[in-house]
Every structure is written in structure tokens, then in C-alpha cells.
Amino acid sequence: MTLKQLMLLALVVGAGIQFVPVERTNPPVETTRVGSDRVMNLLRDACFDCHSNETVWPWYGKVAPFSWLVARDVNNGRAALNFSTFGRYPLREQEEIKAEIWKQVKFSHMPPPMYTLGHPEGRVTTDHHRLLKEWCGIPLD
């Protein structure tokens, strides 16, 4: 197979995979606030695209194969934690979830580096840590 044929095949396959359907939904939001304005701003910037029903689907989320990865990440994120349904949890469970959120942020597991690469506003800085610790009920140092 020549390089020209290989490029043509790649182009045909690339165009063909665009027809594979990907579900990009934003179900109804039940819980609109889980904290103060400052906390909500942080969560919207760093968490909501994957952990709420208020996902802002990026342009590359409409181009296969990236659309498959974005949809998978959003579905997995919502399954793990969905701020849009946070009010369903009893208060004790909400507190446990907040403690887990702090642990994930503290050890830089969330938001994932791949996310913040394309969404620099989603980076959680050391300035955000104090706000997040306070919201999560973690004693301040």
C-alpha cells in the first residue's frame, strides 16, 4: 500500500467514524446550589463539566474519536459524583462526599491534568484550597 493510498484510507475511516452516534445529554438539574457563590464558581470551573448535568460540551467533543472519550469521561464523572443531584444524598453522606472531594483535590487527582490542559480556568490553585477545605469541613491548618 502506498503512502497516498494509506492517507486516503485514513481520510475515509476518519470521515466514517463521524457517523458513530455519541450521546451528549444534559439531564434536568435538581440541585442548583451546594455552596456559596465563591464555592459554586470554583466547582463550575473545575468540576461541573464532568460532575453535573450542566456540562458545556467542547467543540472537540463533537469530533470522533475525541467525542467518544469526552462522553465516556462525562458519564463516568456523573456516575461517581453528580452535583446536579447532590441534594438526594442525606447530609451525612454529603459530608463524606465532601471529604472525598478534598482528598481527590489535595492529591491532585481532580481535576485531571488532561482536563485542565484544555480548561485552564479549571485549575485548582493553592488559593482555592482554603476555600475548598472550609466548604468540605476540613480543619484549616
Mean pLDDT: 92
Helix content, binned percent: 40-55%
Give the tally of structural domains: 1
Unreliable segments (pLDDT under 50, ≥5 consecutive)?
none
Structural class: mainly alpha
| Share of β-strand residues | under 5%
Helix count, DSSP H or I runs of 4 or more residues? 7
Instruction: Name the quaternary structure.
Output: single chain
Q: Strand count, sense and closure of the main sheet? A: none
Q: What is the rounded Rg?
A: 19 Å
Give helix and strand order, one letter per element, not per position. HHHHHHH
Global geometry:
elongated
How many angstroms separate the termini?
A: 64 Å
Care to count the β-strands?
A: 0
Tell me the layout of helices and strands.
Elements: H1 3-16, H2 37-46, H3 48-51, H4 66-80, H5 91-106, H6 113-118, H7 126-136
Describe the structure.
This protein is mainly α and 141 residues long. It has one domain (38-136). The protein is 54% helix and 0% strand. It has seven helices and no strands. Helix 5 (91-106) runs antiparallel to helix 7 (126-136). The chain is elongated and about 65 Å long. The protein starts with a helix and ends in a 5-residue tail after the last helix.
Characteristic terms for this protein:
7 helices; mainly alpha
Can you describe this structure in just a few lines?
The protein has helices at 3-16, 37-46, 48-51, 66-80, 91-106, 113-118, 126-136. With 141 residues, the chain is mainly α.
